[in-house]
Write a sequence for this structure.
């Protein structure tokens, strides 16, 4: 069992309660308007001069989206939050908003593929990047350059779910005058609080566990009021990755069950992973609980893990790995994760950009859903037979 913070449970449950009463509605109204009239021209001009805090135009702020932003900021213990039309919208806003020509960004750990593709695009704008897979702070520190202005982390990392010493990395970056951001999508705001560990920014794809029902795409960045305002004007408003009010409503609805979904997914994933650990066809399990080297960091940084983990098949070829995935009946073969249905993905692909990757060819990543551990184990048993 994981212990969800009782305060977080209430924040999630009350997510729908807007600041305005709205006739006592238990959910916020969907403010489906692209613009907001003001009483006088002076009021409008005042609004335009502080658009991050005034409803002027829905590419900037929107009342329904604002309810979600306030809720996510509370959950992440952040001063402020800005929501985006997708997780990649959030990543783009961070990279374009904080970096300029001549800067370098250091990515640490296994990173979501499209994030690195975007970093490669940044080369065209004079921003360089490199990636470290080290966990030792001295090694990471040596990979910093004089012009490193941003350290971008994933912990747990994509696909292999390895952890980073977040506190040490953030302190080292601060001493070197670089900002730090953590993609906290895998852990959700319930299981890890990156800002409390020293990060300047935490970002999420809300399309995964926060939405939780495979029906909405969204993103969010949380941090200090000053940094979020900087992103609002320098990148959010200009790049235009806007979260629609209806999607904000769906995300608020998802948040209400997030604590219970995470608790259940955590337990079922552990049960399924424990079954696979002893299966003769499984060579390795990639899950923080099963990774002895990361157990100390796990205790320090996380309240638990989600429903995500990977395995590597033992003595299998790539085509045998695909065949096992194809035999699964309850696990859908699909990208993404975090919904009610279990999914499987072959994580390995030949990388056209020649990026460093350490994902084995026989890796299968599972997103455990809500079908129940017994049903999922029976399905895996027949697929591995
Ligand atoms: C899905 C994902 C993203 C991108 O989010 P989208 O909502 O798909 O744009 C970024 N980071 C991680 C870790 C993700 O899993």
């Amino acid at each position: 069992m994981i212990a969800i913070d009782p305060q977080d449970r209430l924040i999630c449950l009350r997510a729908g309660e807007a600041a305005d009463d709205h006739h006592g509605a238990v959910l916020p109204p969907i403010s489906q308007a692209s613009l907001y009239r003001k009483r006088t021209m002076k009021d409008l001009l005042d609004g335009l001069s502080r658009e991050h805090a005034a409803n002027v135009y829905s590419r900037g702020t929107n009342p329904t989206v604002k309810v979600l932003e306030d809720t996510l900021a509370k959950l992440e213990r952040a001063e402020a939050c800005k929501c985006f039309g997708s997780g990649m919208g959030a990543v783009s806003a961070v990279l374009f908003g904080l970096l300029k020509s001549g800067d370098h960004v250091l990515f640490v750990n296994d990173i979501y593929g499209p994030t690195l593709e975007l970093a490669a695009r940044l080369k065209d704008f004079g921003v360089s990047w490199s990636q470290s897979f080290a966990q030792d702070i001295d090694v990471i520190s040596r990979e910093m350059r004089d012009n490193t202005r941003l350290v971008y982390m994933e912990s747990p990392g994509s696909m292999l779910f390895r952890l980073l010493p977040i506190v040490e990395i953030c302190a080292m970056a601060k001493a070197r005058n670089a900002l730090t951001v953590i993609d906290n999508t895998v852990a959700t705001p319930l299981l890890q609080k990156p800002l409390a560990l020293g990060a300047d920014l935490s970002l999420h794809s809300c399309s995964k566990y926060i939405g939780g029902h495979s029906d909405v795409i969204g993103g969010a960045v949380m941090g200090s009021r000053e940094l979020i305002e900087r992103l609002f004007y320098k990148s959010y408003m200009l790049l235009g990755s806007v979260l629609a009010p209806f999607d904000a409503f769906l995300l608020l609805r998802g948040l209400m069950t997030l604590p219970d979904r995470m608790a259940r997914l955590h337990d079922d994933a552990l049960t399924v992973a424990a079954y696979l650990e002893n299966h003769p066809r499984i060579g390795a399990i990639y899950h923080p609980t099963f990774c002895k080297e990361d157990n100390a960091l796990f205790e320090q940084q996380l309240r638990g893990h989600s429903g995500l983990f990977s395995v590597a098949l033992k003595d299998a070829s790539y085509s045998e790995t695909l065949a096992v995935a194809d035999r699964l009946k309850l696990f859908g073969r699909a990208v993404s994760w975090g919904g009610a249905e279990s999914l499987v993905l072959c994580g390995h692909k030949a990388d056209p950009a020649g990026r460093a990757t350490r994902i084995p060819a026989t890796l299968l990543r599972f997103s455990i859903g809500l079908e129940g551990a017994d049903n999922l184990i029976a399905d895996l048993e027949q697929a591995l037979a």
